[in-house]
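Progress against Task 2.4 (sequence-to-structure conversion) is shown through the following example record, which the project officer requested during the mid-term review.
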Amino acid sequence: LATPAGSWRREMLLGDAYSLQRRHELALSAYRRALSRLTAPPAGLLLDVAAAAERVGRLRLAEQHWRRYLRRYPKGLQVPRALSGLVTASLRQRRYGEAQRGAASLLKGFPRHPRSAWVIRRLGVVLLAAGRHRQLETILLPWLRKRGHRRLREQAIIAMLRLRLRQKRRAEARRLVRTYLIDFPRGRQRASIRQLIACAQGRCPKR
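Structure tokens generated for the chain above:
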């Protein structure tokens, strides 16, 4: 159905079209025009603005709209997405304390959600690269023992293994490898984990 030229729905659909074309700056502009015409925006539009802002690196704007979504829809279906968006924005701006607090909210409230495992993996990469070893340990340790949350625990084991190898604590790394291979016999990371421990022992496969 045709929509009036000045309606917010037209702008939202235009933003969707630009997003499909990966023209994210134009998508963001269209979504913001739609938003400016509403006093009670739908959840999807707030999420669209936040995601588009994230894609073009406008992290403060993304954070503003992730938070706006959380305030307006505290029990919304996309609360995990909004929380993970806040963690991502904090990490990209090197605000590691905020990232840790955001991750704690996500992991406590939604430990079985795929976004929680994604956040653990992302924290493992970024905090390890930043040398924030103690902070990473604090996040990971509680989840190494929670066997009821398999996806989350698997990512925690992998992140901790990488940390222990970076710290050259190889005996602990080997124990983590054994734990992973026993508890996740069909885990997708089996091959990469074996390679990690081989490299730590000076036996990296030749390419």
